[in-house]
Amino acid sequence: MIDELVQFNRGFVKNKGYEKYITTKFPDKKIAIVSCMDTRLTELLPAALGLKNGDVKVIKNAGAIISHPFGSVIRSLLVAIYELGVEEIMIIGHTDCGAKHMNSAELIEKMKARGIPQDHIDMMRYCGIDFESWLHGFHTSEESVHETVEQIYKHPLIPKDIVVKGFVIDSITGELTPVE
After folding, report:
1. Taking a C-beta distance cutoff of 8 angstroms, is the pair 92, 149 a contact?
2. Contact status, residue 174 vs residue 98, Cβ threshold 8 Å
3. With the C-alpha atoms ordered 12, 16, 21, 26, is the resulting torsion angle positive or negative?
4. Sign of the alpha-carbon torsion through 116, 122, 128, 129
5. What single-letter DSSP state applies at residue 94?
6. Helices (H), the chain
7. DSSP result, 58-103
8. Cα–Cα distance, 146 to 46 (Å, whole number)
9. Are 73 and 34 in contact (CB under 8 A)?
10. 21, 61, 117, 134: which has the highest count of C-beta atoms within 10 A?
11. What is the pTM of this model?
12. Tens of pLDDT along 63-109?
């Protein structure tokens, strides 16, 4: 499948399909969005918000969560704020999120079934990886979004003038519901 994508890319570039997407690295709307990597949101989220290429910075991961206060999501937000002019942050979870039901013990069993040796898992634990907190799910999307918003508000490196708001998007209709 990757080879097919690369082949498509060659034609895209040759035919200058990129021209309508040209923009700068600075988000026109000065907003960063942290959202889930769910495939249903790939086109739905920008369409439901009226966004075009260049409008916002989008950071996607499983569940739209911050799994570590100094991990890649916070790092990306810091770059967006201090280097790219972001002034507002939207956290957007969604209905029927697959990350909601994640169970670290079950995920570890799936890893072992795919050939990851127990000693690799043990070594990671020995090095301080807490699988239970790193690979956990959540009870509701609203709860997860609220927690993520709080993590950003309380982060010592995020300026207090940054506006942070949370939402849950319906993964079918695109309707946004604010999370307090």
Report:
1. no
2. no
3. positive
4. positive
5. E
6. 2-14, 41-49, 72-82, 104-113, 118-126, 131-134, 141-154
7. EEEETTS--SSTTSHHHHHHHHHHHTT---EEEEEEETT-GGGG--
8. 22
9. yes
10. 61
11. 0.90
12. 999 988 999 999 999 999 999 999 999 999 999 998 888 889 999 99
How far is Cα 75 from Cα 141, in angstroms, rounded to an integer?
A: 23
Give the type of residue at 36. C
What is the spatial distance between Cα 65 and Cα 106, in angstroms, rounded to a whole number?
A: 20
Which residues are registered as beta bridge partners of 58?
33
For 114-144, write each residue's pLDDT tens digit.
Answer: 999 999 999 999 999 999 888 888 889 999 9
Termini Cα distance of the chain: 42
Q: The tokens of 104 are what?
A: 């670290």
Task: Tell how strand 31-36 and strand 56-61 pair up.
Answer: parallel
CA–CA separation, 64 vs 29, rounded Å? 20
For residue 175, give the amino acid letter.
E
Contact 168, 92 (CB under 8 A): yes
Question: Contact at 8 Å (CB) between 86 and 32?
Answer: yes
